[in-house]
Amino acid sequence: MKVLITYDTFYGNTQKVAESVQAALIGNETELIRIDILTQDKIDNADLVILGSPTRAFNMTKKIRKAIRKYTYTGKLFWVFDTRANIKDVESKTLLKLVEHFGYAAEKMEKILLKKGAVKKADYSGYFVKDTEGPLYEDVLDLVKIDVKKLI
Ligand SMILES: Cc1cc2nc3c(=O)[nH]c(=O)nc-3n(C[C@H](O)[C@H](O)[C@H](O)COP(=O)(O)O)c2cc1C
């Protein structure tokens, strides 16, 4: 299976997850690229497209949104994931309510892709970072391995 993994990142955590997704896909033909160099050709040539975004202001990054909106994904198998703050680490009650209400990046990415006619290979995943800049929670790389098994 040809798998394209593309991601955005500010501090490297989403990139780390993307790299471990690629590592878990051993035996498949994979390509891992930053969202900045995504092209329609790369999407068209892949059997499965994986997109990863940090959650920023309850949503995907601008680059991820732009790439989802810009390209054609009709009939394309996809899986999305995000990185996010752990709600249990959030001390502000107001922020907690906002997070509960507005959610995270991955569910929104999935929703737009489905609307564009893409086909979900597995439900979206969200992986926790400890502080804004990371590191990732210790269990994330194991969780990634479990999630990737659903894709192959
Ligand atoms: C400006 C800003 C807004 C953020 N907004 C959210 C948010 O709404 N929900 C959340 O769970 N995490 C939020 N975070 C934490 C990010 O999700 C975290 O920094 C990101 O997962 C790290 O990934 P990266 O290293 O790939 O950039 C925010 C971080 C920053 C800096």
What does this structure look like?
This protein is 38% helix and 23% strand. The mean pLDDT is 96. Strands 1, 2, 3, 4, 5 and 6 form a 6-stranded parallel β-sheet that branches. The chain is built from 6 helices and 6 strands, in the order βαβαβαβααββα. Helix 1 crosses helix 6. The radius of gyration is 15 Å and the shape is globular. It has one domain: 3-Layer(aba) Sandwich (Rossmann fold), CATH 3.40.50.360. Helix 3 links the parallel strand 3 and strand 4. It has 152 residues and is of the alpha/beta class. The N and C termini lie close together (8 Å). Bound molecules: flavin mononucleotide. The site of flavin mononucleotide has 19 residues, from helix 1 and strand 4.
Quick structural gist:
With 152 residues, the chain is α/β, with parallel strands linked by helices. The chain is built from six helices and six strands, in the order βαβαβαβααββα.
Helices and strands, with pairings:
Elements: E1 2-7, H1 13-24, E2 29-34, H2 40-45, E3 48-54, H3 62-70, E4 77-85, H4 93-102, H5 105-115, E5 119-120, E6 125-129, H6 140-149
Parallel strand pairs: 1-2, 1-3, 3-4, 4-5, 4-6
The protein binds flavin mononucleotide.
